[in-house]
Amino acid sequence: MTDHSPDEFAGRTIQSGESAAASDVVFVYGTLTDEAHVANLLDTYRFLGSAVCLGLQRIDGRYPTLVPGDRVAGRLLETPETDRLDAYEGVDRGLYVRVSVPVDGDGDTVDGVDDGIDHIATELDGIDTASVYIGEPSRLGIDSAAVSTVDQTGSNQLWPPGDSFADRAETYRRSADVRIVTKSQPDDP
Q1: Are 84 and 131 in contact (CB under 8 A)?
Q2: What CATH number corresponds to the domain at position 87?
Q3: pLDDT at 62
Q4: Which end of the chain is less enclosed by CB atoms within 10 A, N or C?
């Protein structure tokens, strides 16, 4: 795995101010944590470091996705090519939705309890949100009964009710306080 300086994307140098203005930060947790895989998909990117997404956990179907749960480890990827990521993740086909999640890089607690993660404050300072791709479980061959939870009414459901999967994922993100925290070991997903 190649480390890139903070002022360089893989493949080309960032122009002054370009990183913040023209790029998006994405939390990746599956095949996109592998730099070789990303290099085949994107022309311009850089990994910012390791992170943990609290409130979601990984589950594997035909493709990995996230479901309500404890936490999942991953990496933060910066790129101006989110349109290519959307195509790769099948957003237009309804396989995944891209959800904006708050990034908390400077606190060590979750609801007043130590989250057990050593936080870093580096080039991630000033990044308030990151996109997360969440797959529609039924479209990815995931048995919803295997990962569903029982809500307050006794109803067994994987995600809260909503008009679309994107609505349901966003409702859960807000109600469960899903967020990303950065880790002190940048290359340890």
Answers
A1: no
A2: 3.10.490.10
A3: 86
A4: N
Establish if 89 belongs to a structural domain: yes
Residue 74 lies in a domain: yes
Give the tokens for residue 13: 């140098």
User: What local confidence, expressed as pLDDT, does residue 95 receive?
Assistant: 94
Whole-number Å distance between alpha carbons of 48 and 76: 5
Which structure tokens are listed for 115?
């989250």
Is the residue at 152 inside a domain?
yes
With the CA atoms of 177, 27, 86 and 135 taken in that order, what torsion angle do they form, in degrees rounded to the nearest 10? -50
- In this prediction, residues 118-127 reach a mean pLDDT of 56
Residue 188 corresponds to which tokens in the numbers above? 């340890």
Domain count, the chain: 1
pTM: 0.77
Burial of 161 (0-12, 13-18, 19+ CB in 10 A): exposed
Give residue 50's identity as a one-letter amino acid code.
S
- DSSP state letter for 14: P
pLDDT tens digits, one per residue of 36-80: 999 999 999 999 989 999 999 999 888 899 999 899 999 999 999
